[in-house]
Design brief:
10-stranded mixed β-sheet; 6-stranded mixed β-sheet; globular; disordered C terminus
């Protein structure tokens, strides 16, 4: 389905949302979950693989947690910024998200946490109230939160730095001069084909935040085998890598996934230096936008574009959810995003007990939304 989803992304002005589907499906975290693709189509669908992008009103990629290999019936979109999970036209994205949420709850889900952007709590709540009519055993809530991790690049480095705070600009310039003078490091703009597994392992062992071998293996494998991935780095005079930074490029956007910095060099602020070189390099190759997957603690975050994501969370009135609410604060579960959202004291929970005619067939569900004519949901796991 990836080519169809990529085409759908273009039609919905979400270029690139499905370009790296394999990359995200094979992440170590997502391999612990069950991926589900839910399609909202404009016509009855018996075989999802026969659909064209033009036949699809919206697509939602959502993951089900497994506990000891058993399906938990807890679903979440694995996209904190809401950029990839829901692919649909902006004017119908809220509606697509709400009917998919209802669909999952009607088909056995205990908890659904769906994230999308753009959207707002103001537009989402009335749509949920309409969609959830008759779902008396379901409680739901919504919120909008800051989630931007995008940074716009100007035509020159100086023009780009001018958009940042004076402290950040000063640090960028100071630490670059210091590194070039004292460390005499060299920037390498494209090392995807030359970086070896041994070099990656050596820097990882000496890094400020070493990762497990399983994570390192995946970084190396995807870098070497998947199109669109890249790696840049800083090399010391002796040939050792000081810093490596990897990610993906598509349609004028560069997305940063990981970074490794050698320890013992805190006074040089290696993380700042590699980001300066990154900005300079990406401007040179025509990149227009940087995106940091998961955000960044660097002060440049204060210059990120103002963006928000909307969370829809729905939970059944069941002993399972009740037990989860009571146990989560005292266990490691309280570090999970879904559980944190479920327990957020600021959420306003809603429910509805009015009746609605709803087809509960296991493969397809029909509703008659106000913004779309006859809409059908098909699930393919």
């Amino acid at each position: 389905m990836q080519p169809v989803l990529a085409r759908l992304s273009v039609l919905c002005d979400q270029v690139g949302a499905a370009d790296f589907l394999e990359y995200f499906l094979t992440s170590l975290e997502n391999l612990k979950k069950i991926p589900n693709l839910i399609l909202v189509t404009s016509a009855p669908c018996t075989n999802p693989y026969e659909l064209r992008a033009e036949d699809i009103r919206g697509a939602v990629l959502i993951f089900e947690y497994k506990v000891l290999g058993i399906r938990s019936r807890v679903f979440t979109s694995n996209d904190f910024d809401g950029r990839r999970a829901v692919i649909a036209p902006a004017k119908t994205k809220v509606h697509i998200s709400t009917i998919v949420c209802r669909y999952l709850m009607e088909h056995g889900a205990q908890i659904v946490c769906l994230i999308f952007a753009p959207g707002s709590e103001e537009s989402c709540k009335p749509c949920l109230e309409r969609t959830m009519v008759g779902a008396g055993n379901i409680r739901w809530a919504t919120r909008t939160r800051p989630a931007g991790a995008s940074f716009a690049l100007a035509d020159t480095v100086e023009a780009t730095l001018a958009t940042m705070g004076s402290h950040t600009r000063r640090n960028f310039r100071y630490y670059r001069r210091k590194a070039e003078t004292e460390l005499q490091c060299t920037f390498c703009g494209d090392i995807r084909n030359t970086l070896t597994r041994a070099q990656l392992s050596e820097l990882n062992r000496a890094s400020t935040h070493p990762v497990p071998d399983s994570v390192l293996d995946r970084r190396y494998k995807t870098l070497k085998t998947m199109e669109g991935l890249f790696c840049i780095g800083l090399k010391a005079v002796g040939g050792q890598w000081i810093s490596l930074l990897g990610g993906r490029r598509h349609h004028g956007t560069t997305e940063i996934d990981w970074q490794m910095n050698r320890s013992g060099l805190a006074k040089y602020s290696i993380g700042t230096i590699i980001r300066y070189y990154l900005i300079e390099h990406e401007i040179g190759i025509g990149t227009k936008n940087l995106f940091f997957e998961g955000g960044t603690p660097h002060s440049m975050r204060h210059s990120f574009l103002p963006q928000k994501a909307t969370d829809i969370i729905a939970a059944s009135r069941s002993p399972f959810v009740s037990l989860l609410r009571k146990a989560a604060p005292w266990t490691a579960l309280n570090r999970n995003f879904v559980i944190q959202t479920l327990l957020n004291p600021e959420l306003e929970w809603n429910s509805s007990r009015a009746a609605i005619s709803y087809d509960s067939s296991p493969a397809q569900t029909s509703v008659e939304p106000q913004t779309l004519s006859q809409t059908r949901c098909s699930t393919k796991v």
